[in-house]
Design the sequence.
């Protein structure tokens, strides 16, 4: 057990924890941030992605040891931003959500694309979402939603 | 506004922001965790279980703790809640290990030793399918007479399909609590009343002391039809024993390895021709059920009743068997038997067209069913059927003739035409399900839908709310539809068989019509509506004759593929689909089902290989069991024709399962077209193509 300090959704936090615990469990169990989902626990499905110092990571593969002093942003943190409103509206309008279990992860991956590209190609969008599995939508409406986001963020 | 016009789904915003709470996200007081002790042998007698020294906080729950019946109430009661003396498949649950501390459970389980006396196990259904002791069910139905018809040619093929895993994103999960003498199970599920009935049977508690609450469900596809009943019984037994809240959530490897899958199949089709025209067809379907019957008999019946597909043949004999093995037990998955037989039939029809040197669509047109014709089960097609029109539309919007004439090297096209009967088979809706819905106008003017059907991603909340709102001419936000709780809602049946919009939606439509007259008053009023079988449905289950389904939906799909000539890598570039689902209740929901079904069908046809070796599933994760990602999807284009169904709400028929079924056969035919060889098995993989080509060279 050790005291670990890091920035969570813009606020400095600290907790007593084992350094080998998964960031995913700390977020869900210690901070009640259940928007980050466990789909596989092996870094294959993307349901648990968060930003760690701006990089999109599978939080099921990140031990707390790697979080010390860093900045973590989850879907709950992203949901407070202006750009999130655009992404949410785009997902609603495109009908990009069915069961919803992969959706927070898809939103995080979309945010990552927006941070990385100004005018991504279709291939870049597909590649950017290919770490996130969705079993309901067939991805088509999610791709439409992401394209809408890029049309809208131009104005932001 | 037309009913088909797309509206925003009612359940979306909380899902996007992560606020929606699935079972793993809900806090329970003094929650205890459970893990499953499983059999490591495929068939054997348990000769001993050695547990480590008792540890404070650890509880063991097994067959001896079951209050009344140690079996899961499904169609037969042949599957135990916990295996007691004998195990019949690898992974079969023997006990739950429970503690407040997850790590303590893992430590404790490391020290458990189970010893078995191995018994002979069956892993290949072909080894035993002629042995009646290994066949759960063996059905045959006949139309006309294969024996006496006149024919001059026979064309045969044998087709095989493998397992498919539902791979819903949210794993199986349930929580049981006991409060004031009531045992309550919360969970991710499709059928709250199936779970409730299983709990009553297992615990002996009456309906006032068993409560089932469905919570937000992260995908199901049939995988949460019958399976949650098993888990619910297990956690309920545990909760009754230690009087605390018990949570059982699988990890992904457990879920992929040990939960129900689509049945592996072998389908033999023999077609009889006279003067190059089909005069009869006889078929034999074998499905691998694993060790327990589960829903396999129902799956087999849909496989059989769908077998002649979109075609009318004068003489038909269909035989189907469910074979008992010691492989993982198989069950419901979107399409429910039809994906297997439609792969077989549509490959067969293509191969026959090729042999006769007739265009694949032109060949099919000669046999398309039409209103008034006799079905394979000797019922009558009651509704208008527009397969010719659908074929015209498919040819026109895919540019079929041009695709055929200007085919680039290493590309191929394939088509498939597939029906889907909406709702339960035969008189199942009236005799077994007996759906009841309630619609309540509250004093605040809002209208509440009271049904046991669940939102699992397919859009039930939006579709049913939209139907009620449209009839009553109120805003969709003024319709309330909570996740079902069996203490609050009547049994409107399970959320399966593409029945929710067509059957339950129609009952709500009728209830809303009655409620109209009361909308201007302040009184609270509840309308109850019961399912009544339409007069045109006549069915005899004994002889399997009559109208197998109330109404059929139809699909016509064309796939385009490219095959790399060196690596045999297959890419599906385009899927065109034409659908008759009556009148879609919402274009957005309809397309959502089409896209999702197409991609799941594409996985079934090309990617999702799952193999069992000596009773053990070899693919146990997202890494080894590969499903399509955003990088794998084709261009998908879909159109629909309007064909109002008299007993569907606003004319709607079944949608959800139909969209998956035609894809794998169309894609397989496209690959066959690209390489110029016939294919008999899915998934079609580069390895298979290599083998097919090598065999040819020899």
Sequence:
């Amino acid at each position: 057990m050790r005291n670990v300090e890091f920035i969570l959704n813009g606020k400095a936090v600290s907790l007593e924890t084992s350094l080998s615990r998964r960031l995913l469990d700390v977020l869900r169990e210690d901070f009640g941030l259940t928007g980050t989902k466990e789909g596989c626990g092996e870094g294959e499905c993307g349901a648990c992605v968060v930003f760690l110092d701006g990089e999109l990571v599978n939080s099921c593969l990140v031990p707390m040891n790697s979080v010390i002093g860093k900045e973590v942003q989850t879907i709950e943190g992203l949901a407070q931003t202006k750009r999130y409103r655009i992404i949410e509206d785009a997902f609603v309008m495109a009908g990009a959500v069915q069961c919803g279990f992969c959706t927070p992860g898809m939103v995080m991956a979309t945010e990552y694309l927006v941070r990385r590209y100004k005018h991504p190609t279709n291939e870049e969008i597909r590649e950017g979402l290919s770490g996130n599995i969705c079993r309901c939508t067939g991805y088509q409406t999610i791709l439409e939603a992401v394209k809408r986001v890029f049309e809208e963020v131009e104005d932001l | 506004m037309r009913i088909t016009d797309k509206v925003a789904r009612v359940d979306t915003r909380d899902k996007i922001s992560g606020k929606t709470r699935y079972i793993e996200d809900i806090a329970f007081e003094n929650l205890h965790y459970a893990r499953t002790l499983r059999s490591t042998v495929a068939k054997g007698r348990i000769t001993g279980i050695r547990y480590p020294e008792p540890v404070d906080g650890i509880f063991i729950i097994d067959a001896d703790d079951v209050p009344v019946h140690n079996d899961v109430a499904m169609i037969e009661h042949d599957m135990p809640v916990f295996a007691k003396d004998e195990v019949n498949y690898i992974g079969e649950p023997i006990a739950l290990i429970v503690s407040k501390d997850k790590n303590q459970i893992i430590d404790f389980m490391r020290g458990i030793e189970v010893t078995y006396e191995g018994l002979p196990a069956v892993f290949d259904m072909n080894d035993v399918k002629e042995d009646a002791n290994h066949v759960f069910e063996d059905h045959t139905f006949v139309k006309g007479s294969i024996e006496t018809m006149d024919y001059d040619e026979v064309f045969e093929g044998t087709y095989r399909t493998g397992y498919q895993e539902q791979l819903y994103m949210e794993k199986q999960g349930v929580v049981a609590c006991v409060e004031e003498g009531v045992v309550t199970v919360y969970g991710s599920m499709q059928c709250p009343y199936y779970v409730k009935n299983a709990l009553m049977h297992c615990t002996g508690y009456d309906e006032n002391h068993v409560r089932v609450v469905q919570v937000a469900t992260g995908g199901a596809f049939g995988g949460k039809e019958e399976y949650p009943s098993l888990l619910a019984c297990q956690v309920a037994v545990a909760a009754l024993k230690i009087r605390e809240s018990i949570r059982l959530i699988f990890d992904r490897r457990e879920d992929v390895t040990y939960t129900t899958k689509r049945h592996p199949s072998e389908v033999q089709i023999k077609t009889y021709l006279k003067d190059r025209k089909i005069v009869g067809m006889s078929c034999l379907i074998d499905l691998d059920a694993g060790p327990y019957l589960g829903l396999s008999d129902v799956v087999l019946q849909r496989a059989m009743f769908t077998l002649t597909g979109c075609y009318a043949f004068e003489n038909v004999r269909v035989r189907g068997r469910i074979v008992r093995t010691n492989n993982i037990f198989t069950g419901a998955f979107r399409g429910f038997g039809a994906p297997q037989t439609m792969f077989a039939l549509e490959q067969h029809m293509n191969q026959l067209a090729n042999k006769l040197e007739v265009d694949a669509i032109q060949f099919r047109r000669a046999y398309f069913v039409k209103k008034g014709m006799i079905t394979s089960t000797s019922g009558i097609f009651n509704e208008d059927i527009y397969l010719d029109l659908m074929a015209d539309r498919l040819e026109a919007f895919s540019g079929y003739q041009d695709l055929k004439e200007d085919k680039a090297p290493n590309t191929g096209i394939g088509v498939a035409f597939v029906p889907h009967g909406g709702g339960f088979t035969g008189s199942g809706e009236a005799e077994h399900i007996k759906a009841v819905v309630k619609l309540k106008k509250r004093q605040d003017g809002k209208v509440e839908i009271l049904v046991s059907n669940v939102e699992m991603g397919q859009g039930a909340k939006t579709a049913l709310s939209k139907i009620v709102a449209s009839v009553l001419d109120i805003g969709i936000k003024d319709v309330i539809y909570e996740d079902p709780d069996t203490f609050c809602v009547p049994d409107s049946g399970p959320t399966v068989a593409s029945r929710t919009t067509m059957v339950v939606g129609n009952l709500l439509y009728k209830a809303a019509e009655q409620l109209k007259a009361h909308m201007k008053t302040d009184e609270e009023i509840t309308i109850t509506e019961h399912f009544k079988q339409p007069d045109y449905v006549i069915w005899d289950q004994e002889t399997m004759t009559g109208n197998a389904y109330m109404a059929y939906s139809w699909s016509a799909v064309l796939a385009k593929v490219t095959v790399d000539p060196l690596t045999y890598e297959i890419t599906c570039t385009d899927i065109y689909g034409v659908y008759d689902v009556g009148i879609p209740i919402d274009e957005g929901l309809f397309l959502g089902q089409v896209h999702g079904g197409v991609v799941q069908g594409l996985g079934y046809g090309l990617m999702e290989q799952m193999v069992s070796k000596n009773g053990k599933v070899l693919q146990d994760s997202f890494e080894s069991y590969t499903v399509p990602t955003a990088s794998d999807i084709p261009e998908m284009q879909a159109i629909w024709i309007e064909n109002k169904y008299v007993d569907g709400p606003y004319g709607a028929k079944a949608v959800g399962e139909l969209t998956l079924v035609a894809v794998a056969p169309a894609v397989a035919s496209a690959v066959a077209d690209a390489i110029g060889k016939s294919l008999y098995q899915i998934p079609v993989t580069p390895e298979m193509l290599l083998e097919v080509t090598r065999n040819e060279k020899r």
